Amino acid sequence: MLNENMYAVAVAIGEVIVKNFPIEYQMYVFDGKLALHDIIGQVLVECCKYAYDNTAEKHSLNYHLKSTDLLLDKDSERMILQRTMSYIQERRMIQHDMLLNRGISVEGLIAPDMENIKDRLAGYQLNDFQYWEINNVHNMRLVKAIVERRLPKKNFNTDLFKEYAEEYDCAFQQYAEDWKNGDNAIFDFLALFTLESRYSFDFYYELATEMLESNVSEIPNIKRRLVAFSGTPSIESLLLQFGTRFVSGPIYTDSRMLVSRRKYIHEIVTLSAEDFEEELTRFNEGIILVSAMLLHMTYKKIPIRDWFVKNTSPEDWLSVFRDYDVFQTFNSEKDWSNKKKIRYVKEIYNAMTYDYKNPEYRS
């Protein structure tokens, strides 16, 4: 349940949507599975995450190394982490260049230039969660197998798949228990929200399970559907019919409605392209609504994300995170006994995964 402060913001978000967006547009978007509270909840989560990212203390790599009890000596660990950071940045630069070729500039993908003496002296500045992410890429083998596109390959056999999946689930089972007990709950939420929004392992497991239960061997129009629900779609909104007050052109943004998207699992798997088109359009418009609110809404005469940075506390964020509860998307008891399910998950990743060695956008 939201605390008083966050409830007031939630009411304000709802009022802005109801009073400002065309009524016929709202009637269309909310005439399916998507509801107004789905949009409100997503906006709140994104604002809280933004506030955390912009207020959490950042420190050098040396600081984080000194604050952890590592079995490896610090120099060895530093070299491993620096290689990991270079690995991440190499792939971010490929993605940045790909987006730039499409006329989209995302400077946040570019890290400080370590050839510059000022940046070298300052070093990489990371908050606790960013430091965890760097370690995660190196230590969580499933994530690395997805990023490197090894998971969909034929030589990535069933036993290896199960081993990596079990390792991943064991890690998040501990986070789930901590989440229930209230131990470091904000960090636990951010960990699952970040990895599930980027890699969608539990979402794809649910899709593969539905494929077995519905006796479907291939998801219709798979790339279009999965880009909308778990990728970075380019959306030409229906709002353009009403002029450029709300959007000025196609919106290119991450699809991170992790709780809401689970409503569509049966339909994603089973409906024909024609039958599913309206629900797909409505979901895309939900993404547009979230993006528009984050970019344009003001609260108490301040842009809403900036208001969250200046006026909210970790207690407020936790209130929102508890209400959203991303851990409902996590299944700690996945059943991989049917090899078809593993094959289906691998085929989904093959359709969705960005190829860093041969860059082309797979959508």
Topology at a glance:
Elements: H1 4-20, H2 23-29, H3 36-55, E1 59-60, H4 61-66, H5 74-101, H6 117-122, E2 125-126, H7 128-139, H8 141-147, H9 158-181, H10 185-199, H11 201-213, H12 222-230, E3 234-235, E4 251-252, H13 265-270, H14 273-296, E5 298-299, E6 302-303, H15 304-311, H16 314-324, H17 339-352
Kindly provide the radius of gyration, computed on alpha-carbon positions and rounded to a whole number of angstroms. Answer: 21 Å
Order of helices and strands: HHHEHHHEHHHHHHEEHHEEHHH
Low-confidence stretches are 102-109, 117-122, 356-363
Query: What best-fitting shape do the alpha-carbon axes yield?
Result: globular
In total, the number of strands is 6
Question: SS-based structural class?
Answer: mainly alpha
Strand order of the biggest β-sheet: 1-2
Q: Characterize the largest beta sheet: strand count, sense, and whether it forms a barrel.
A: 2 strands, antiparallel
Helix count, DSSP H or I runs of 4 or more residues = 17
Helical fraction? 55-70%
Strand content: under 5%
Q: In terms of quaternary structure, what is this? A: single chain
